[in-house]
């Protein structure tokens, strides 16, 4: 067994079992490549022939095209209960997305404070209207965070209980 260790444009570096590294063209592969993929290497007439190692592929859960495997239950529950602060994104290895969730929560709090403050300062404070405005903002935010969490919890996991989520 060998492993893909680096992909540069059209060149692929493959780490061999004996510790050596070979460099081949990506056209030599008839399947999707990603770093960490375990492949079988065969030689015929001084040419390399590559095939995907299906046993290693089933046992491992590599990152696939900007996605990563996470435990469905953990990720879904973190998303549902702590979605507004982005804990689920930190769990999935997406600190940038997690920080965006935190930033959006801060913006929401500022908007809520501004709405209430403006109504009080403008003298238009009406408990009913203020409550409606606040409810619209809060329910919108809840819908934005809870519906995707529920959809995530409805995804079918693989045999290890994991699902793919986007990573960036």
Question: How would you describe this structure to a colleague?
Answer:
It is built from 5 helices and 7 strands; from the N terminus they run βββββαβααααβ. The chain has 168 residues and is an alpha+beta fold. The chain has 2 domains: 2-59; 67-166, no CATH class. It has a 5-stranded antiparallel β-sheet with strand order 3-2-1-4-5. Strands 6-7 form a two-stranded antiparallel ribbon. α2 runs antiparallel to α5. The chain is elongated and about 85 Å long. The relative contact order is 0.13.
Radius of gyration: 25 Å
Number of helical segments? 5
Number of domains: 2
Read across the widest sheet, the strand sequence of neighbours is: 3-2-1-4-5
Mean pLDDT across every amino acid position? 83
Low-confidence stretches: none
What is the count of β-strands? 7
Task: Please give the largest β-sheet.
Answer: 5 strands, antiparallel
| Pattern of helices and strands | EEEEEHEHHHHE
The global form is elongated
Helical residue percent band = 40-55%
Output the structural class.
Answer: alpha+beta
- The N- to C-terminal Cα distance equals 30 Å
Binned strand content: 15-25%
């Amino acid at each position: 067994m060998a492993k893909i260790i680096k992909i540069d444009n059209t060149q692929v570096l493959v780490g061999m079992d004996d510790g050596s590294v070979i460099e081949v063209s990506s056209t030599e592969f008839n399947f999707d490549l990603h770093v960490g993929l375990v492949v079988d290497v065969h030689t015929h007439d001084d040419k390399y022939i590559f095939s995907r190692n299906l046993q290693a592929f089933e046992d491992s859960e590599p990152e696939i095209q900007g996605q990563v495997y996470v435990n469905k239950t953990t990720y879904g529950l973190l998303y549902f209960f702590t979605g507004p602060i982005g804990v689920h994104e930190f769990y999935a290895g997406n600190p940038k997305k997690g920080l965006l969730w935190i930033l959006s929560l801060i913006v929401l709090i500022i908007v809520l404070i501004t709405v209430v403050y403006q109504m009080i300062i403008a003298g238009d404070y009406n408990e009913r209207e203020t409550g409606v405005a606040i409810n619209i903002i809060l329910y919108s935010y809840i819908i934005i965070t809870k519906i995707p969490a529920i959809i995530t919890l409805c995804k079918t996991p693989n045999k290890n209980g994991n699902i793919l989520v986007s990573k960036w």
